Amino acid sequence: MNRPIYIYIAAGIAVLGVLAAYVVGAYSPLAKRLNERRRVLNIQQQELEAARKLLTQYDELKERAAQVKLEMFRLQERIPSRPRIAALLKSVTRAATKCNIKEFQFAPQTLVAKEGFLEQPVRIVVTCGYHQLGLFLSRLAALPRLINTRDLQITGKEKPEKTDSITAELTLVTYIFDSSSHTPREIPAAKKIEKKEKAQK
Fold this sequence. Notes:
Number of domains: 2
CATH class of the largest domain: Alpha Beta
CATH topology of the largest domain: Alpha-Beta Plaits
Number of helices: 4
Structural class: alpha+beta
Oligomer: single chain
Largest sheet: 6 strands, antiparallel
Order of helices and strands: HHEEEHEEEH
CATH superfamily of the largest domain: Ribosomal protein S6/Translation elongation factor EF1B
Low-confidence stretches: 182-197
Distance between the termini: 122 Å
Helix content: 55-70%
Radius of gyration: 42 Å
């Protein structure tokens, strides 16, 4: 006896429903795991991007720190924290020699403290010609250490020679960093400080 067609249709629908329920039931945990992995992957990508930015900032800060260190080194060379009279004398002597100045006097004066720094005056007397004096002053200004010249006085010699026609007197002023000094005062002469520096070496 033939069964009506709708019975087969109903049976097919029932089977499809069971299969659909099975597929949905099996896919749901997998979908959750996939979503969870996507979420974790997004978090990791965000953390990686943040780490890259931090690395870039670190490289920039490292480069900036190197620049600051270089500037500090240059500043310490221009304005040292000690008188360094021996090094100054060596630099002035070298400048005089290059200008063919054979006679000059180098006399450190008393240090005078200003607010935050010390002034180191040095009395210089040279016997030379005008051209040599100009070169000498130019070389002093070009020294790494910060130097100013004051009280320049030029007198002609009674018996001028070919290369030594004048005597020039001037005060060469260098600066020393001193963060502990905040009021003007006089402190011992540079020679005593220089001896102390040599004793500590």
